[in-house]
Amino acid sequence: MESMRRRVLTALPAALLLCLGADARAQAYPVKPLRLIVADAAGGAPDQLGRALAAKLSESLGQQVVVDNRPGASGALGADIAARSPADGYTLLLTTTSIYAILPSLKRNLTYDPVRDFVPISRIASASNVLVINASLPVQSVAELVALAKSKPGVLNYASAGVGSPAHLAGEMLNLLAGIKLTHVPYKGAAPALLDVIAGSAQLIITSPISAGAHMKAGRVRALAVTGSARNPSLPELPTIAETVPGYEISQSWGIVAPAGTPAPVLKRLNDEILAVMNLPEVREQVARAGAVPAGDSAEAFQAFMARERQRLQDVITKTGIVLAD
Questions:
Q1: Which CATH superfamily is domain 30-127+252-320 in?
Q2: d(Cα 232, Cα 226) in Å, to the nearest integer?
Q3: Helix (H, G, I), strand (E, B), or coil: what is residue 108?
Q4: 78-110 in b/e burial notation, b at 16+ Cβ within 10 A?
Q5: Which residues contact residue 191 at a Cβ distance below 8 angstroms, ignoring those fewer than 6 apart?
Q6: Which regions of the chain carry the CATH code 3.40.190.150?
Q7: What CATH number was assigned to the domain covering residues 130-243?
Q8: What is the pTM of this model?
Q9: More confident residue, 164 or 139
Q10: Which of 5, 123, 215, 295 suits 54 as a labelling partner, its CA being 20 to 30 A distant?
Q11: pLDDT, tens digit, for every residue of 143-190?
């Protein structure tokens, strides 16, 4: 009995040191710059949100948060890089509706799993999309666009941020529900897609107001409608597409996730810091000004939200018969 007691007492300091060491490491985090992977080209909605968040997090964490743009494959390329990164809290991913909800229902050969490979930290913003057209296209409403598309099947092109992106799904939903044939032209991100709509190489795009807002204000594109079930409070003059095409609805959300296995204390610290940033009046005003709704919630709430969106969009994809044909 005495020898057992001595062994227990001998082991206690080592166990205590281990616990103190883990706690110290958590308190010290971060000790070097962080990387925020944005799976979109510079200038797109994810990039704008990521840079706004990174700037404020750099201040509050005391370490630089570097935005790493990795566009391609509608976000799958950046998601794959993030999933393979060390789970140490120094690599984060700005996840999108495409990454966590659309691609898993459209592609069987994804190199990442949105549930298995990532842990949620917080949602940061949501927005209904906006349908914008080349300024010279002779239509002023969704009804006129549908009529023009019916008179010229396959002639009008719609741009997207890539195959399987929200803009791709949105365009195919419009084709199916309005009974028209728009030709899909995929790009590596929303920003280059928008530039070609402005130039006239493509006639329209359904994208986030964050990406399109500056071009709308400058008159480089014409906004016809929003894609949500209700009008966007930031764009009250625009009707919903559903007012012309019943049953039409699609929106986008963005959030921050980390590779699975990231330590719980680190995730808690990041959630606390992101919530603080998203509650800053200047950040909320910036996001709202861009036509989105600022968010910021618990990891559990974000996880539940992503699960609901995956199911909802999977149901939409199944009912409309959308497939990846290109």
A1: Bordetella uptake gene, domain 1 (3.40.190.150)
A2: 7
A3: coil
A4: bbbbbbebebebbbbbbbbbbbbbbbbbbeeeb
A5: 40, 41, 42, 43, 44, 47, 211
A6: 30-127+252-320
A7: 3.40.190.10
A8: 0.81
A9: 139
A10: 215
A11: 999 999 999 999 999 999 888 788 888 999 999 999 999 999 999 888
